[in-house]
Every structure is written in C-alpha cells, then in structure tokens.
Design a protein that fits this description.
Layout: H1 5-16, H2 38-46, E1 56-60, H3 66-74, E2 79-84, H4 87-99, E3 105-109, E4 122-128, H5 137-146, E5 148-159, H6 165-178, H7 185-198, H8 204-213, H9 220-227, H10 237-247, E6 250-254, H11 263-266, H12 270-275, H13 281-291, E7 297-303, H14 315-320, E8 324-325, E9 337-339, E10 345-347, H15 350-357, H16 365-372, H17 376-384, E11 388-389
Length: about 400
C-alpha cells in the first residue's frame, strides 16, 4: 500500500470513524440507486440496454460497503471487487454484505494508487467520495482509467467548492483551534460541536449547517467526515474538466442533467439564451454553477471508447426494438403514477401505463403497439423518459 502521510491520515480517520455509518441489515437494502445498476446506468449513458449482465464491477474506495451491497444486489450476475485503505471500514463492509447475503464480492485492502495490482479490467468502476481525499487525484483517476475495459463506464462523485464553502471555513477553524492535536479525530469532532454550539443564531456557518447538514451530522462518523477530514480537494467546473482530461477518458455526462440546463435559469429571458450561443458546453456548465452556486458535489460518468450510442429517431428502428421496463421503477403496477429511476413521480397517460405493463423484453415494439392499438409516439415518450429500455 502507498504509505505517504496523507494516505496514513485518511486511513486513521476511517479506522476511527468507519464511513458511511448506515445500519447493517439482514436483508437487501431498501430502494435503489440507478447509478449502481449496470443496466440502468448503461442505458442512461448509451440510450440502450447492455448486451450482457455478467460484468466485472470495481467499487473503488468502498468504505463500509453501502455502495458495494447495492452493486451486488442490483447486479446479481456480476462479479464485484471492493477495495478500501481502511481495515476498520472493510470489516464493517464484509459484515454488511454477509448479513444481507450480497454474494460474489471480493474485498481487498488496497489504495487507489495501487489499483493496478488487481487482475484484469472492469466494465463498471464505481468511485464515490474518494478522489477528493487523495493527495494526488490525477494519479488516482489515471490508475482507475487503466483498469476500465473498452466500452466500460467509470462513475465518479467528487466535492464541489461552491456548495461546500461554509464547510471549508469550519474545517479551517477547527484545524486552527486543534493545533498540535490535529489528527486526533475524536477531539476534532468534540471541538467542532462546541464551536457550533457557541455561535450566534444568525451566524452564516451555523445557519448553513442547520439548513443542509445537521440531520446527517448527528452521527459522529458523518460530522468527522465533513469537518475534520485530513485531506479534501474541492472542485469547480474548470478544475473538474482538468481532472477528467487527465483520465484520458471521454466525458459521458452528469447524472443529474436537468440541473445543467441553462434554460431553467433563463427561461424568462430568451435573449440571454441567445447571448450564450457562442459558449461551449463547459462554459455553459461554469455559467450555471456561478449563477446557482449550490453545487456541493459533481456526479458523472466517463467511458473508454468505443461506447456505441443508440439512435432510435427513425420509426422503423424504434418498431424493431425490444422494450423492457427500467429496473429502477416502482409503483407502475398500481395505476397512472410511477416513481422513475430518479425517484421522481411521473404521471402516465392511460396509454403509457398500458404499454409499460406490456413491456417484458420478449417482443418488439411494433408488435406490442399494434396489438394494443396504440400510436408509436406512446413508446417514444416512455423511451425518452427512460421508463423503458430498448
């Protein structure tokens, strides 16, 4: 393992406070995160279902195994490898997966710097909340890129500086007061709680904590991860672009694309949209985060070419496609409302509900819409909303 002082300090934090502190269950975890479902993630990135399910998945920086558990249960034919530098966190992760019967998971105590020691390549690499805690994130993402198979997906989550500005200030304040006791994470948590308790009610840092983070920070593990972490690099769109470029991979897109639409900010002023016509996509992203500085993290997909993108625009191509329901849906059996892959309520038309119930992955759309007497536009609506996958 890499033994530099930053790696050692991060390991010490998570040995003291294994993270995340989610409860261990004797059954599969509730709900889902579509980003951890191979079919849903692949469909989001390419517009079509993947050709196979027996993929190799790497959970790079698994912590206490919350994501690992989902990856195993949501991808029952996949082979999952989970790595982390913290032995304490790995112990919890192993127990978590054992209790919920998340099988086909291999755990290793390993740094991202040493991920090259793992054999073979991976179709899906999940790296959530890790790169921004490395001393050298560029080296970390480059190492992950080398383990990504052609046509594979790398799912990344890193912190954003604008939405975490008050967190950064409190981190620095705690560090100043800790002085030589920095690295004593229990002392840091105690000190940070005392600071918040002493601040006046109209203090900006206290207000932000109450508005955004207080509920999760009732747990010391969360408070420590947020306020006394020994290493954190926060990104903006410009530095994020540099990180992505260093990977040598292709940017597929943010997993919350609705946020990154300039129209939602300028919909009352079309002339402002016209003024943005000369901007490239990354300049538009930067403009959005400057105007709506709530971005506390970036979550996105990268790929190693070739990653074929489906084109269903021609009616004859759409008719020949075989539809299946997105695996990350709930409530579609009961009526005209469904929770989509993003936990948003979608109100279906009666025609959409009828077609959705008929999609089982065994017949093409042309046959189904003809049998049900529906227009092909109904199918196109479901596909555009990612309620069905083709």
């Amino acid at each position: 393992m890499n033994t530099d002082h930053v790696t050692a300090a991060v390991k010490s934090l998570y040995d003291t406070y294994p993270f995340p502190p989610e409860p261990l269950l004797d059954e599969p975890p509730p709900g889902y995160n579509w980003r951890w479902n191979w079919s849903a993630a692949y469909n989001f990135c390419t517009g079509r279902k993947p050709d196979r399910q027996n993929v190799r998945i790497l959970d790079a920086g698994c912590g206490t195994g919350v994501g690992t558990e989902y990856l195993a249960h949501l991808n029952p034919l996949a082979e999952v490898t989970a790595i982390d530098i913290s032995s304490g966190a790995l112990q919890v992760a192993k127990e978590r997966c054992s209790r919920s019967k998340a099988e086909r998971v291999e755990f290793q105590q390993l740094s991202l710097y040493d991920v090259g020691h793992l054999p073979g390549e991976f179709d899906l690499i999940n790296c959530v909340g890790v790169l921004h805690h490395l001393e050298d994130p560029l080296k970390g993402i480059q190492n992950l890129a080398l383990k990504l198979a052609p046509g594979g997906l790398l799912h990344i989550f890193v912190y954003g500086e604008l939405g975490r500005w008050e967190i950064t200030l409190m981190q620095k304040a705690i560090a100043i007061l800790q002085g030589e006791k920095r690295g004593d994470y229990q002392d840091g948590v105690s000190l940070g709680r005392q600071i918040f308790a002493s601040l006046p009610e109209d203090n900006r840092l206290l207000q932000r904590e109450k508005e955004r983070w207080a509920l999760e920070n009732q747990r010391d593990e969360c408070f420590a991860d947020m306020y006394v972490h020994p290493q954190e690099i926060d990104y903006n769109i410009e530095s994020l672009r540099e990180l992505i470029a260093a990977s040598g991979l292709e940017f597929v897109g943010f997993s919350n694309p609705q946020f990154w639409q300039l129209e939602r900010l300028f919909n009352q002023k079309p002339e402002l949209l016209e003024r943005s016509n000369h901007l490239d996509q990354w300049e538009i992203y930067r403009l959005i985060e400057l105007l709506d500085p709530e971005v506390a993290h970036y979550e996105f997909f990268l790929s190693r070419p070739p990653l074929p993108i489906a084109d269903w625009s021609a009616d004859e191509v759409l008719r020949a496609a075989i539809p299946d329901r997105n695996p990350c849906l709930s409530g579609w059996e009961d009526g005209l409302a469904v929770f989509n892959y993003n936990y948003q309520v979608v109100h279906l038309t009666p025609e959409e509900a009828t077609l959705l119930r008929a999609c089982h992955g065994d017949r093409n759309l042309g046959e189904i819409v003809e049998e049900l007497g529906l227009d092909l536009a109904v199918a196109r609506s479901l596909q555009t909303q990612q309620l069905i996958m083709l």
